[in-house]
Here is the input.
Amino acid sequence: HPDFKSFIGLYPIPYVHGMTAGELAWLFNREFGIGVNLRAVPMEGWRRDMTFKDTGLEWIPTSPHIPNAETAAYYATTGSIGELGTISIGVGYTMPFHIVGAPWIDANELAAELNSRNLPGVTFRPMYWKQFYGIYEDQSIGGVELYINDLSVYRPFATGIHILEAIRTLYPDREIFPDNRASNFKFATGTDTILTRLKAGVPADVIIKSYQDDLEAFKILRQEYLLY
Here is the structure.
């Protein structure tokens, strides 16, 4: 949404868009009026169904907390959750973006709730850990470890919405959406709609369904710019 445009989200595209940098450049240049003389150099030997591991290339960390390609997929689920400042996402422990939790969460209870939802491509393991730094430093935290077991069907952003809804449902007396951090989450997701609906207790599936028309429209739009 234009009200939440920032350096981390300049244009109205999905959180997980499935495009290469070159393809995005073409789309941005034409659809958003940049208008430069652009050339994108196609890659050799790459297919859209490849994971980064399939390429055999060396991963260059995009962040100190994203040391490998596997973590990038987890970041797409938990990164925005961390902006709330109430849920640990493993930054400050040895598993950044792979785990979510808080001192007041029962690990087994949260894992059971999330696994009961049968979310595609992922399972949840109960876990306790102690933060070395950052949010809840030196405190024991209960939560879950995410296991992405099938990246081809995994829905990173939708999974994050389910995680937040599950925590809100299990712990209704906890303030997990504080007003002083609300803008961080809104800018990370590019909208205020998701936060507003989560706070109101709208089910995750309803929230996810609400943006499907926009998602399908983008899939049609991007077809013109796919190079592979």
Summary: The mean pLDDT is 96.
